[in-house]
Amino acid sequence: MPRRSTLSIATFNVNGIRSRLPHLITWLREEKPDIACLQELKSVDQGFPRSDLEAEGYHARWVGQASWNGVAVLVRGEESSEVRRVLPGDPSDSHARYLEVDALGLRVVCIYLPNGNPQPGPKFDYKLKWFDRFNRHAKKLFALDTPVVMAGDYNVVPTDFDIYNPRSWLKDALLQPESRERYAKLLKMGWVDAIRELYPEEQIYTFWDYFRQHWERDAGLRIDHLLLNEAAAKRLKEGGVDRWVRGLPKPSDHAPTWVKLKHVAMAKKPAKKSAK
């Protein structure tokens, strides 16, 4: 692999990895992210297209689930080291929503936060409990000296500035005060919302649903986020949304969202001297 001056880390809710595999591969070939966090695989572990992705130069770790959920982390040219595949705090939670790995000198967290609809109700209650567990763990991650990137579909529109028209979504779980308060709590810890940091006065969307020509009208929402701890935020260089992927035929309703961080090569450990 060529020496990297920056590292690109992307998050992409593929909305079905088997059905969107051609789109995923097209995007990987075109944009070549160093690390790609994927959500909503909708595939059991055995159905994950490992060989197809390896043919493109990507090593993968994933947590699958039949028909729902599922997350994966792809790393270009190198293997990652798995840290955990379950969010701490609830041993009974069987949803495939969390994967944490070490890769290319970073701690990378891939999440698919519960949608929570319809609300009020048990699905919204589960969302808030999951979010609380995530925030408790995020506090520990933030304290690491290692650069940490928490990337994924957070299913939260942080503010009214992050949606084309909040009036149409007032009852949706993505905009509820309880959801927004928990996201704001992450920022108060010190996590940096990378896209908003780079574009403080620009409306940027990452999701356009399939109804009422929302894509054609650019009636979008920003719900895919990359949060950086202090060590990672110091390296932030660029970021954006690969909107062209949403414009492909039969696409996911999300577009890949990415950042670039200055790459600091890890010092190699000195070789052990052989005994004489």
Task: Characterize the structure shown.
The protein has six helices and twelve strands. The protein is globular and about 45 Å long. α3 (122-142) runs parallel beside α4. The protein starts with 5 loop residues before the first strand and ends in a 14-residue tail after the last strand. Strands 3-4-2-1-12-11 form a six-stranded mixed beta sheet. Strands 5-6-7-8-10-9 form a six-stranded mixed beta sheet. With 276 residues, it is of the alpha+beta class. It has one domain: Deoxyribonuclease I, Chain A. 22% of the residues lie in helices and 24% in strands.
Return residue spans where pLDDT drops below 50 for at least 5 consecutive residues: 267-276
> What is CATH's topology name?
Deoxyribonuclease I, Chain A
| Strand arrangement in the largest pleated sheet | 3-4-2-1-12-11
SSE series: EHEHEEEEEHEHEHEHEE
Report the top-level CATH class: Alpha Beta
Radius of gyration over C-alpha positions, nearest whole angstrom: 18 Å
End-to-end Cα distance, whole Å, is 36 Å
**Architecture (CATH level 2) name:** 4-Layer Sandwich
The helical percent reads 10-25%
Q: Strand tally, please?
A: 12
Percent strand:
15-25%
Q: Number of helical segments?
A: 6
Q: What is the global morphology?
A: globular
Q: What class, by secondary structure content? A: alpha+beta
Main sheet summary: 6 strands, mixed
What's the name of the CATH homologous superfamily?
Answer: Endonuclease/exonuclease/phosphatase
Number of domains: 1
Arithmetic mean of pLDDT: 95
